Amino acid sequence: MRVALCSKSMELVDGNFNKARYFMIYDVSMSGVKFVEVREPEKIGVMLDSDEIDERIDAISDCKMVFCSNIPRTSKARLLSRGVFTVWMRKEREIGEMLEELVEHMRVNPPPMIRKILEEEKV
Fold first, then answer.
1. What's the count of helices (H) and strands (E) in the chain, helices before strands?
2. 123 confidence band (pLDDT: 50, 70, 90)
3. C-beta of residue 91 within 8 angstroms of C-beta of residue 35
4. How far is CA 87 from the centre of its chain?
5. Residue 44: its pLDDT value, please?
6. Which site in 3, 81, 93, 96 is 20 to 30 Å from 105, CA atoms measured?
7. What is the C-alpha to C-alpha distance for residues 23 and 67, in angstroms, rounded to an integer?
8. Which pLDDT score is estimated for 49?
9. What does the buried/exposed string (b/e) look like for 70-97 if buried means 16 or more CB atoms within 10 Å of the residue's CB?
10. What's CA 105's distance to the chain center, in Å?
């Protein structure tokens, strides 16, 4: 399953979806994690102070989940309408640690949202 992590530093999941400097893209499976690429909203034509978020959503539309430190309700609704689940991180997390925990959740007892994604990917 492909995920996007919102980051200001490329080290932590610490970015607000509407203002994140980087989208760190990973493929995550029960067997591990594979780094895909870094997507920079500034380089895909999105101004950091822009109210328009459609280009940000387009930039991660191939992802099934996005993890961020904050996300406005309107952005969350738009992402969900495109089939991208959002996860609000209550505190900043180191990317590697967070991804290891995600893999462990997938293996042991995936939450309903992740279970649904995994079932859809089997089809």
1. 4, 7
2. low
3. no
4. 7
5. 61
6. 81
7. 9
8. 47
9. bbeeebbebbeeeebbbbebeeebebee
10. 16
Is the pTM here over 0.85, yes or no?
Answer: yes
pLDDT tens digits, residue range 46-97?
Answer: 554 445 688 889 999 999 999 999 999 989 999 999 999 999 998 999 999 9
| Architecture of the domain made up of 2-122 | 2-Layer Sandwich (3.30)
CB 84 within 8 A of CB 2: no
| Angle of helix 95-108 versus helix 112-122 axis, rounded to 10 | 70
Tokens 């309107």 locate to: 74
- What's the half-sphere exposure (Cβ side, CA atoms, 13 Å) at 20? 33
Tokens 């993890």 correspond to what residue?
67
Residues in the chain: 123
Phi, psi of 6 (to 5 degrees): -85, 130
Residues 6 or more apart in contact with residue 28 via CB below 8 angstroms: 1, 2, 3, 34, 99, 102, 103, 106
**Cα angle 56-97-91, degrees, rounded to a multiple of 5:** 65
